[in-house]
User: Fold these one by one.
Assistant:
Number 1:
Amino acid sequence: MSFTDSAATRGSDDNRTEPVEAGGVLIGGREFVVIAGPCAIESEAQLLNTARAVADHGASLLRGGLFKLRTDPRSFQGLGLVGIDIAKAVRAATGLGLCAEITDPRHIEPLSDVVDIFQVGARNMHNYALLKELGQQSRPVLLKRGLSALIDEWLLAAEYLKSGGNSRIILCERGIRTFERRTRNTLDLSAVAYVKRHTSFPVLVDPSHGTGVPELMAPLCRAAAAVGADGLLIEVHIDPETARSDGEQALSAAGFAQAMAELRPILFALGRPLSGPPANRRSR
Amino acid sequence: MSFTDSAATRGSDDNRTEPVEAGGVLIGGREFVVIAGPCAIESEAQLLNTARAVADHGASLLRGGLFKLRTDPRSFQGLGLVGIDIAKAVRAATGLGLCAEITDPRHIEPLSDVVDIFQVGARNMHNYALLKELGQQSRPVLLKRGLSALIDEWLLAAEYLKSGGNSRIILCERGIRTFERRTRNTLDLSAVAYVKRHTSFPVLVDPSHGTGVPELMAPLCRAAAAVGADGLLIEVHIDPETARSDGEQALSAAGFAQAMAELRPILFALGRPLSGPPANRRSR
Amino acid sequence: MSFTDSAATRGSDDNRTEPVEAGGVLIGGREFVVIAGPCAIESEAQLLNTARAVADHGASLLRGGLFKLRTDPRSFQGLGLVGIDIAKAVRAATGLGLCAEITDPRHIEPLSDVVDIFQVGARNMHNYALLKELGQQSRPVLLKRGLSALIDEWLLAAEYLKSGGNSRIILCERGIRTFERRTRNTLDLSAVAYVKRHTSFPVLVDPSHGTGVPELMAPLCRAAAAVGADGLLIEVHIDPETARSDGEQALSAAGFAQAMAELRPILFALGRPLSGPPANRRSR
Amino acid sequence: MSFTDSAATRGSDDNRTEPVEAGGVLIGGREFVVIAGPCAIESEAQLLNTARAVADHGASLLRGGLFKLRTDPRSFQGLGLVGIDIAKAVRAATGLGLCAEITDPRHIEPLSDVVDIFQVGARNMHNYALLKELGQQSRPVLLKRGLSALIDEWLLAAEYLKSGGNSRIILCERGIRTFERRTRNTLDLSAVAYVKRHTSFPVLVDPSHGTGVPELMAPLCRAAAAVGADGLLIEVHIDPETARSDGEQALSAAGFAQAMAELRPILFALGRPLSGPPANRRSR
């Protein structure tokens, strides 16, 4: 059986995507892109060690929040602007671009130095004041689907960005809220197939929030690739048990390595190599 | 890259399944099983032509309903017992086993001659009177997840079958009801990963009801295989536009062929050959 | 302020209802009807004492299941046909008609002697084999809305009964399944207002399953009356802590009395007297 | 039957509420408060005429948005700061306090002159950056429940306000997102009963967004009062057919008058007079 004709495999649903360049990586092109890292930046050691671990196993961009949207005001809210220096240092040391959540239009300017992709979280998908402002700057925006957003509403939220002039938009499916309780959310991979077919946006899948269950991550990473996603956004923590937020859903470095190992044959079958970290890309 | 060690790929989530034999096919073993055919049996020509088309492209069992659960009492309700002779003739001509829905405990006996797998539809998952009776006979039962059934309720419905003495149970995820409107239901592939990991039942995925959208079928067949499902249940109609029920979600023969073509590289990557029709199996 | 002109109050939504007579009580007429009793019939003493308690406080019909649809096969499934003699004795002693769930078409005949209203539970709303058979007999049928049934599907289920020839149909809203976890289901009182306006069926509300929380029962009984329901279906157990099913959501006799006391001023405002037990009706 | 002992009626669920004063009106006290007006302020004539109409029929505060959160960026987004002068003029002419939505922390200061209650819409319930800022100013905040927010998340959002120092919080149930399609959302009156019993916040109900269907408004206003809500938030437009946003769900002046007429007997039964406009209050 030949895998060379990737068009045969991907032809039915993935021929219109317009790739977005971010942090030296092309998202939505032939290569499959994995963004991985901690929910929140906690310290330089935590971020640097996690960054190195995820790069070793195939991630090409780093995730890590400075500002966290937490349901409970007494929960850890992120390091805030204090974390910028840590992020800068780790970015310089590893060469990995940073994807970080933005929660307030007034943070766009201070974060622009250090953030390669502004992430709009599910809880802010309907925060149109924020979207309008992000539409007026030029960094790529990763737009997560809202907790209970219709696909149509998600695409209209992307219009808020586009109508401001920014068309560097990456969509991210992260699970919707349903009655099911064994998983934190219900990951909607049909929505990924739908937006791949009906729009030209690159689409990532976040199985960490999508399921909230580390043991389900590897099969859902495989499924996300197979359904046609352009990449993954995964929470990895060097020591999940001490994580200050979302530790229960983060993969350990070993868990991430296992998920990536199981993902590679699927990507090979799809004719989509894993993008990998910048250093690897240079040497290829 | 080597694909020979399928355990590396499937090891994280699929090592406990106890296969179920049905219609000469092993469901839940190494081979991936596709059950395909029309929503409802309409005529001998329709069933025979569809059966041949799906067998040509990799199906190893035939689906086709004699009794349909239709929301509207004025809709076509299936041929009923009249369809038994048609089913017998097509089964004999093609050698394909039949998976057909059962909606009334009083039909178990007349259908036992011709049905290889009794399908309990989503709307009857909570029909415990029916489940109890199916638990007391020996044919395999394909148990679909209810429209809004918790995974735990689905597994307890399986207990109704088991506690009667029948452990030839195949689970089938077919989408849950959510707010999203672009798809008929929301196919919950996380639930497949969950039950693969926590039970020993074979698990199929029905992307036809799961999405209701033919154009999304190929990517979701690929994703279902990648997430660890043991097979698929797909609606195929030789002429979807004339179908008397669910025609809008059925694949044409060509659409089915395309979905199977896109599925094969994924199955190869997973180390799971497509089971194929009985004739092919004999010659292998 | 005058309350005599009930048309002013109810005029906007309640002028088409065709009442259904059941167990000597008119449901859907000017009087508001409360059906109360245990989830399951456990013993003659339990049923008789509960029946007397609910009649004392305003119920005009008794509920009590012989066959229970339980999610778990190891749960108490009801006394079955053994309970018929108990039901007959209590019906004779109190003069209260009985509303009991039917879960199998083969039980219609043995239950016809003792059941005044056949209740189709939420899990069987889509059990069209059962509905067809109930359509061919003449007892009133209380049709609960399915766990995740669209209003339109609920009304089409009623069509299954009507198309068989039985138009003695009473609808019952009992909560739909949503993501919320503080209540067992989400009671959809908008659906009650909708079906009152768009159909001629009497409509009851079941706040016991609708919320699953005894402390919320009194306010929701008031709201159900205010929104235009024709009555209530309430689980009351003489000793909820010893109940063999659903005890956690049953009201005690004192809780029921309190809910009825809070309901009466609302009913007075609406110009709808509480129907009350047969004895009271005779003496009125 | 005596209605004087309102404690008998309300005693089971409403004895802890701490009222919040806003625009000269006490919300959460014995009087029932109706806030009514257009979705968006469109012109001085539109706002003034609507304000007079709603005051005539029992509203005691005016609603009207300057900034609208619209799903589609091409929809009318509100007059913005330009509308402030209109709002001031109408407030002066009618004596009605204004409840207006706030969508951006940077608008708090310019709106503080003219807004008596800052409304946080459902789509911003999770916008913690906005909530934190609103917690640091002293105007009352009406906090709507998010589209798919758990009751617990709604109460934690209120904690964001409280932890900043502002305890003038009014909750507002406005329907949650479910599968049902006959209504825009599913109004969750059980949630109202729950928060009345478990918190000390005043709670309003918004049947306009809760159902999206004008013909269901009157019954749901009655039900909201009966379940224990402290008031209503209703969209009224002097000419719904020309409304620039949400016109399909707004009541006309006549529809509002009818809903209020049907509400009054229920309020009388509950022992809760309608608060009414400031002029009426002075003369009482």
Number 2:
Amino acid sequence: MREALGLVVPGVLALAALSLVVLIWQGGAATPYSVVEPDASPRIDDSAPITPIPPAPVLDPLRVELGERLFHDPLLSRDGTVACSSCHDLASGGADRRALSLGTGNAPGRRNSPTVFNVGSHFAYFWDGRATSLEEQIDGPLHHPDEMASNWPALVQKLAAHKDYPGLFRTAYSRDIDPAAVADAIATFERSLVTPDSPFDRYLRGDEHAISNYAKEGYKRFVDFGCASCHQGVNVGGNMYQRFRVLSDYLPDRRENGSTDLGRFELSGREQDREVFKVPSLRNVALTAPYFHDGSVARLDQAVAAMARHQLGRELTEEDVALITSFLRSLTGQYGGEPLR
Amino acid sequence: MREALGLVVPGVLALAALSLVVLIWQGGAATPYSVVEPDASPRIDDSAPITPIPPAPVLDPLRVELGERLFHDPLLSRDGTVACSSCHDLASGGADRRALSLGTGNAPGRRNSPTVFNVGSHFAYFWDGRATSLEEQIDGPLHHPDEMASNWPALVQKLAAHKDYPGLFRTAYSRDIDPAAVADAIATFERSLVTPDSPFDRYLRGDEHAISNYAKEGYKRFVDFGCASCHQGVNVGGNMYQRFRVLSDYLPDRRENGSTDLGRFELSGREQDREVFKVPSLRNVALTAPYFHDGSVARLDQAVAAMARHQLGRELTEEDVALITSFLRSLTGQYGGEPLR
């Protein structure tokens, strides 16, 4: 609680100071309708539960480029068929649009692939948060028998025998290829995958016309109903764990027996971690269907209604769902100067 | 009923004749375990509700090639952003893996894009069957304001001004570009998109080891429970209309009010067509999630359970669902000599 207050109090002070600035500034304007350049405007609402995505961090371009190549290279997998981008396709919202990603032999895996966009500012990785850095995360898919089914010695050996990689690593890291450099390059590329300038971020920065009134009302309900108590911060999620008990209404038995995925309980064995998962980010959520850790919900409107019912105990009206969905669509950002699709 | 008998009686006679042939043939075999070459075997079960996909028809290769190019060319759309392949991506099971396809301005459309694979042998097109030939189908997306937003005169003019198309059409059709030639080329390419040699087809042709015992039991239940009364023939569907009343459990109000998509009723205005849709093909169904005309169901196991509950009034057990899903996975065929993914 003290920590929470520690965040809130400076926020309120900052807001008060900002309001004063705005009042003074407005007093000096010729008309109440002065055109304000969004970028020049200091009108970020510091009390808002969501903050705009800052520009991409400054990263070593040689490492980003090397990481980009590794990210797309199926050489990382034992049989040369699976790249990071197979399940995290930048042209598919940074994920793969499948309920459960396909592993070796086309068999579906166990959980839904999350998007790779904006992961640089998540607090943990995988649905159960079992990795706390991007570098550590790479260990998972690299070794998983249904994903890349490889290992570090095998990968380093393949990269060292490649016609381009040894030179690229020497240039970017001033040393021969080792696991740390591979992981660093991929993680550095991933940190470059930010999607700023969504309509909602432009709205937060003061451009009142960046989103529709429909989306504004959806945002209001998103906050009022309590969605923002978990989906907040720069990623509108991605910064805490919560119990998740949305059960698929369509699957027999599961409704009585509960999900077979126990989330963080599977790591810790602690009762309080049963069915506890990382709260996913809602950035670009309109592009990352299907939803939830088991990919069991196909459409964003269904996901909104299901979350409200199961997490908040609230039955939304069709209007609530449409408005909140409209707000969530305004969270689609830009990458490479183009809106994501 | 007479029509149904008309189908069943010859089937039974054919089966009896086949059994006799098999008995005679087995009598002459050296052991009861003789190895039979699948392709040489005459053991197709003529009474099976599903028949294997025949090889691709013989088509004019110049027209196929021209159609392939047109199919992938965003020039077909008014603003040059949308090709046929945008929603019917051959690398995504012939569809787009979205619940509802994205139109102009990224707004979701109204219905789920069906796969383009094997459409040459469907009896009608669109979820409501409003086109009865592939050539006629093209009119729909070409003109729809949320899809290509174009028209025939505009398209013919663009193609005629293109550096390659006039020559390609003259070679393939011995005449200048006209709408009929464009439609014929695209439809001819689409007729080439067949996916033979699925594991299940190899099983039907006599290769007992092509599918698992698990999938065989799933097939048995698929037939026993009545799924095959609508999903049958060469496409395991795609040859009749049926009323479809699966309502999304997650969407508020809809549960009471029914779907807002009235299917063929919207064309005919006849009460008996209310919520009547084309029965989709289940060929390659493991790759074409999400499911149903509204893309409301994310996973194949959910779709199986939902269809049984709503169409057949049967609550499947988790085992039933897993077995039938396993059978449906065996319907994934090959294209260009590789299994679809």
